[in-house]
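The aim of this short unit is practical: by the end, you should be able to scan a pair of folded records and say something sensible about each. We start with the first protein, listed as its amino acid sequence and then its structure tokens.
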Amino acid sequence: MNTVKYNAKIVDCTIRDGGHLNKWKFDPLCVKASYFASIKSGVDYFEIGYRMPDTAQGFGMFAYCRDQDLIDLIGPAEQGNILVMIDAGKSDDTLFTECIPEKTIVTGVRVAAYPYELPKAFNIIENLHKKGYKVFLNLMASSNLEEHQLTLLRDWKNKHIIETVSFADSFGSFILTDITFQINRLKSLGFDSIGLHSHNNLQMAFANTLQAIQDGARYVDASIYGMGRGSGNLPLEVLIGFLEKQKHGKYNPVPLLDVIEHYYVELFRQYNWGYQIKSLLGGLSDIHPYYVDEIYNRKNYTLEEIWNALHIIKEKCPISYSSDNLQTVLDDRFYKPLDAESVKKSFEKISDQLTVIPASDAFTADKFDLTNAWPKRKILIIGNGDSIVKYQKEISDFIKNENCITIGLNYLQNTYTPNYHIFVNKKRFQKYVNSVSLESELILPSFFGKESVRLLWNKPVHYVDIKTIEDEN
């Protein structure tokens, strides 16, 4: 087997990136053991956490990485390989003392910045460099860099002071050609040392990292057991093990395997990172994972509806997560009953459950007039709930005595066979349509589309349009 040429340095970002799962509330003994295991395995830098300001509340000690706490935990760092990260949008260089052994064991700072934060990041990096730190620039959401931001990177006169510029596959959307493109673009902007921070949404982190190395990357990130948000990161022990198999003598995965057995297997049971559908959706859509988490966790939408909404979120929401912007996007699709005034207060309470995310084959339906179909007949609507079982006899007698046309809503617990059955939430339709009697006629919103309905219901359907807020404007 041919030996892969390998000149990149490895950054273990487990505690910093994995801390997003547990708010950086790691057992200090776990962090200490992870540090020594990484160094023994051949890792070049150990990123021990964030340096957040004290105003950021509710996190563990490795969100703040105060100098004295780190000295007490690890002692003097003889090899000078401990890094912390700061977010340019939330922290600054005033959190750091002068970089001398008597005051700190942190020897390097990685400054993470979204494209719109570049000027602030440059300033922080320059100030930290003056204090004696090795400095790194980490570009978050690098796939979203715009032309004027590329110009800022190209024209930055002090780019020579950084150890490397790392581009982050922040949303786990990159494939091999994206890696090559990103590296070549940064080279064209005048950067000699380039790094990669990969995420594993598409299960491409290992392949992308090897591609980056082949393309000349000088730094790559990985985390123990792949610990990280969502689908996690490149497992450090996989990379180290691969390099050991390639006969690179300094690498040894055994210390990492030992610390995994002692600490990370249990952490995995608690936080369950790794491959999952919602992380795949974020990677395929190239959007912040919190957007996918929020809409996914509402549990009101089918995967098709979520998929159809993601391109709108990508278009209208900022790169960094904004719950307000997400809600605004979803508000644009609210619908409400025709007698809006009479149900306004109720609507306000349940509006997040009434969000319409149209299918790709949504359409405008022909008018369906139920009242004219049954002139002079009373219409009884039967909603789901315990009372329809408790009073089943009384309700059935009323229907018979009054000669009612009946409309069922959602799940009727197999107690009635209404003339018509309505669903307005697609997820409930998919969940409960099998309980609908074939003697009932189905009424569905046209925004469901027809293709997915045919898969679950093989009889004719009455489609109706739902009145939306924008229809009133």
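Turning to the second protein, read its sequence before its tokens, just as you did above.
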Amino acid sequence: MIKAMRKVQIIGPKGFLDECIRALHSVAVVHIETPPAEYPVESILQKLPLEKEKLAEKERLERAARMLNNLVQLLKAPQSYTRPKILGSEMNGFLADIATVDERVRALHAGRHELEEELSRINRYEKLLRGFTPIVSRLSGLKNFEITGLTIEKSKEEIVK
């Protein structure tokens, strides 16, 4: 349902700005959005410069978000997944673990890639090994012999003759 909106002005110390916005969002009494393009922002809003600590926090969270997005791509997130809500106080604990998890997932992903390549190589030789199986079974008494195989393209088979 669409309701008529009114412009509100909130006055208070900048230190409480984030907490105020979270409180307003939690009780769902205001909708904060960027003004439309036809309104010059300078006439409506006064842009607050980010404090150094807030800027550092923003950069840290953006790095963590990129790392998490990369992890989701590597892990292929399940289709039925609901993101848990995390409080700001819990965030630091989670952020400390991201680097460790990222390193471990990348190592596992690299190991998986190596195993997939090895499986691919084994599958290529399977046909050749199946061809030698009858010969090897007939040589069961000759365990001290070394067998060497040679594969030649069909177009060059006259070399062997």
